[in-house]
Amino acid sequence: MTTKGRPTGHTGAGVGPPRVPPPGEGGGHGPAPTGSDGPAGIRAGTAESGPARRAPRGARSRTNAAAGVLLTPFFVLFTAVTVVPIGYAVWLSLFTEKQSGLGFGGATTVFSGLDNYTAALGDRAFREGFWVLAGYCVVYIPLMVGGALALALLLDSTLARARRFFQLALFLPHAVPGIIAALVWVYLYTPGLSPVVKAMNSGGIGFDFFSSSGTLPSVVNIALWEWLGYNMVIFYAALQAIDRSVLEAATMDGAGEWRTAFGIKLPLIRASLMMVSLFTVIGSLQLFTEPLILNQGGSSTVTTTWTPNMYAYTAAFSRNDYGLAAASAVLLALAAALLSFVVTRLTNRKGATA
User: Fold this and answer.
1) 3-state SS, one letter per residue, for 282-318
2) What is the pLDDT of residues 78-100, one digit of tens each?
3) How far is it, in rounded angstroms, from Cα 44 to Cα 31?
4) Which residues does residue 95 pair with via DSSP β-bridges, in sequence order?
5) How far apart are CA 181 and CA 171, in angstroms?
6) Cys staple from 326: which of 91, 92, 215, 338, with CB 3.0 to 4.6 Å?
7) How many CB atoms lie within 10 A of CB 180?
C-alpha cells in the first residue's frame, strides 16, 4: 500500500531511495578523503601526536657545524695552554743535562728515562714538602669550606641585614692580587713594624708568626683572607637559587633557622659544596705564593723547598735542573689528580646515600 507514491510498511531490498555511502566507505568509491575525517586523517593525527620526528639530516649538520665553530676557540686555547705544556713537561722530565769531560765542555742533553722521578722521590726535601701540604690541607680545607658556608648561610637567613655591604666587604680581599696580599700580611707579621704584633704584645699575647709553630697558621690565615669571600659568594648564589616556596613550607611546618639551614638548604646545594671542596683541594696542593713571600720576608722556617711547588721552582731557577723540576711537577700533578678523584668519589657516594 502506498500513499502519494511513497511505500509504506517494510522497506525491503531495492525498495526506497538508494543509500549513498559516505566518503571513504566502500571499495574505493567516492572522493578521496581529505583533512582528518577519514582514515588518512586519523593516521596523520596519530603521527602528529606520536614521538617527535627526527630533525632532517641537513638541520643536524648545520647544528653540528655551528657547535664546532663555537667550540673551536675553546679547544684551541685549551690545547695551547694546558695540553701542550703538560706534554712538554712530561717530555722534559725524561731528559737531563750532563757536563762533558771535567766540566769545562758544554752541557749535553741526554735521555735519562725515569731517573728524574727517582731522584725527586728519593730527595727528603721533596717528600717532606708533601707532609707540609698534608698539615696545611687538614687545617685549611675545613676552615675554608666551613667558614664560607657559615657566612653564606648567615647572609641568606631572614635575620641578615645589609647583605650587599657584607657581600662586598667579604669579597673585596679576593680582588687583591695574591702577592700583594702576602706582602701586606708579612708586614703585619713582622715585629717592630706591625701594629697587630704591638697590640698583641701590649695585651700580654706573645706570638711569633715566623716560628716553626706559627708559620703554618700564618700561611693558612693569608689564604683564608684571600679566598673565603670568593667561596662565600658561590655558596650564597646557590642558596639564592633555592625555590623560596620550599623554605616557606618548611617555616609553616615549624622548622626553625637551624633546621631549615641544615635539613633543607645544605642538601639542595650539595653540588656547589662538592665543587668548592674539589677546587679547594686542588688549590691547596698548589701552595706557592704565600710561603715564598714569607721565605723572602725573613722566615727561617719556610725554606726554598718547603712545598713541592717551591721545590720545583728552586730546582728550575736556582739549580738549573729543568728535568728534575719537570719530574717533581708531574708527580705533584698526579697527586692532585688522585686526590681530586678520591674527593669526587666520596662526595658522590655521600650524595647517593643521602
Assistant:
1) HHHHCCCHHHHHHHHCCCCCCCCCCCHHHHHHHHHHC
2) 999 989 999 999 999 999 887 76
3) 18
4) 111
5) 14
6) 92
7) 10
Task: Tell me the Ramachandran region of residue 299: left when phi exceeds 0, alpha when psi lies from -120 to 50, beta otherwise.
Answer: beta
Specify the residue for cell string 705544556: 85
DSSP state at residue 174: G
User: ∠ at Cα 195 (190, 199), nearest 5°?
Assistant: 110
The residue among 80, 60, 219, 224 whose CA lies nearest residue 145 is: 224
Percent of the chain with pLDDT over 70: 80
Does residue 314 carry a pLDDT above 60? yes
Q: How far is CA 171 from the centre of its chain?
A: 19
Give dist(CA 38, CA 305) in Å, integer: 85
Burial class (CB in 10 A: 0-12, 13-18, 19+), 139: middle
H or E segment at 7?
Answer: strand 6-7
Cβ-contact 225, 173 below 8 angstroms: yes
> Residue 220 — φ and ψ, nearest 5°?
-60, -40
Is 94:116 a contact under the CB 8 Å cutoff? yes
